[in-house]
Amino acid sequence: MLSKKTKYGIKALTYLAKQETGVPVSIATISEMENISLKFLETILLTLRKSGLLGSKKGKSGGYYLLKDAKEIKMSTVIRVLEGPIAMVPCVSLNYYEKCSDCPDEAACAVHHLMIRVRDSNLKVYGETSLADLMHY
Amino acid sequence: MLSKKTKYGIKALTYLAKQETGVPVSIATISEMENISLKFLETILLTLRKSGLLGSKKGKSGGYYLLKDAKEIKMSTVIRVLEGPIAMVPCVSLNYYEKCSDCPDEAACAVHHLMIRVRDSNLKVYGETSLADLMHY
DNA sequence: TATTACCCTACTAAATCTATAGGAGTAAAA
DNA sequence: TTTTACTCCTATAGATTTAGTAGGGTAATA
């Protein structure tokens, strides 16, 4: 299952992508427009800013805005920031590899090989899809 | 993340696929060979039997065995039984569709469209991969 | 009839998810 | 200069899910 955090994060990003570039949008506005709990959204946008996807302006008429062109924001990046590794098991993760404790031999593990296929397939989708591809729906 | 339940279930299935067809293998044997907690495995195999993938024989020299040829067991079935719907959001699930409460218009939802791509890509992998494809690793 | 092994329900500890609370800090407008 | 409208940040709490465990029941077979 996709977490609400990721879901809301993607919705917020697409909302920002549709605005004039560089103009900050307040959390409250996004919260209302996308039906997202304000305080929850606050923490999500904070995460996105810390990851370098969003910029923010403090004080009156402040808010969040995209730091890059929507075309440059790949969903693989967004998913990694909000949802974590794209791989479904650590032993096939490219960025966060970890050996499975229960598995003596990866090369002989059926789950390992299946999950490599799944990872590659998902990586292709997330890598080929940018915010620009989603913002006009 | 893939749940341990699914991971262990796939391991158990591939172990059974490697045995002589129709000969029951005890839970204890699979548990030892694949490093899986016996009691946990018990509930997993029960689920697989109830779903129609496994048969069982009670009493001495009893155990579990595959009901179908490994080629006929697609991973899409296995995943659905153990992990649940393949779709990451209910609003793109073919078998368990549900409307998202927070989303007024699916056609206008970026997450919806992204998750359709992900679902199709995963469905392809799981549909094209059978137990027979994994058992010889 | 003793033993072996599956059958089944219920329970629990730990982790994760989904928020919420409450204030500190900042910038612009009145 | 005071007020207002924002973001920033940490902590916490309730709900849900996960990963197992406990313990007895039931059927088959040697």
Automatic annotation (TrEMBL), chains A, B:
The keyword rRNA processing does not apply. It comes from the Bacteria. Pfam families: Rrf2. SUPFAM superfamilies: Winged helix' DNA-binding domain (SSF46785). PROSITE patterns: HTH_RRF2_1, HTH_RRF2_2. InterPro entries: TR_Rrf2-type_CS, Tscrpt_reg_Rrf2, WH-like_DNA-bd_sf, WH_DNA-bd_sf. GO terms for molecular function: DNA binding; DNA-binding transcription factor activity. GO terms for cellular component: cytosol. Keywords: DNA-binding. This is BadM/Rrf2 family transcriptional regulator. It comes from Gelidibacter sediminis.
